[in-house]
Amino acid sequence: MTQQDGRRRPPLYWFQHERGEYTPLPFTPLSGARPFCFFRSREYAREFLYHWVPEKSIEKPWTSRGMSRSDWIIDGDDDVDRLLAVCDEAAREGYEGFLIDPPLTALRGLGTALTRSLVDMKGGIEDGAAWS
Q: What is the model's pTM?
């Protein structure tokens, strides 16, 4: 196995605003913080987006401007270095914790047990444990 092969993992997917920003989705923050969500499949990411964001428009809680599903793209990668860079960028953008495959139910009441810190998330990506 080449070193390049060792830097691949099963892909993770995430939402990215059409303007290239990591914009929070308008769901209730988890314990007061907005987690960055990763998904193990593009299909589940799409299902999550369709569950949380109406087709036409919903008011952004932080700007009072409308947004719709079409404002986001689903991005993803299996490259460890890119996944680590996404984590770092999300942390710089103010995300506080990471979730993998968050439930379609309300996030309120889940507590912080499901969220991972930046260090934990990056460690899980490095050693492949982010998917377990």
A: 0.77
Q: Which residues contact 50 (CB under 8 A, 6 or more apart)?
A: 69
- What is the CATH number assigned to the segment(s) 3-24+33-131? 3.40.1350.90
**How distant is the alpha carbon of residue 58 from its chain centre?**
19
Instruction: Name the residue with higher pLDDT: 43 or 58.
Output: 43
Partners of 110 in beta bridges: none
Structural domain boundaries in the chain:
3-24+33-131
Please, are residues 22 and 89 in contact by the beta-carbon 8 Å criterion?
yes
The full 3-state SS of the chain, as one line of letters, equals CCHHHHCEEEEEEEEEECCCCCCCCCCCCECCECCEEEECCHHHHHHHHHHHCCCCCEECCCCCCEECHHHEEEEEEEEHHHHHHHHHHHHHCCCCCEEECCCCCCCCCCCCCCCECHHHHHHHHHHCHHHC
Summarize pLDDT for 57-102 with one digit per residue, the tens: 555 554 455 567 787 889 999 999 999 999 999 899 888 888 898 8
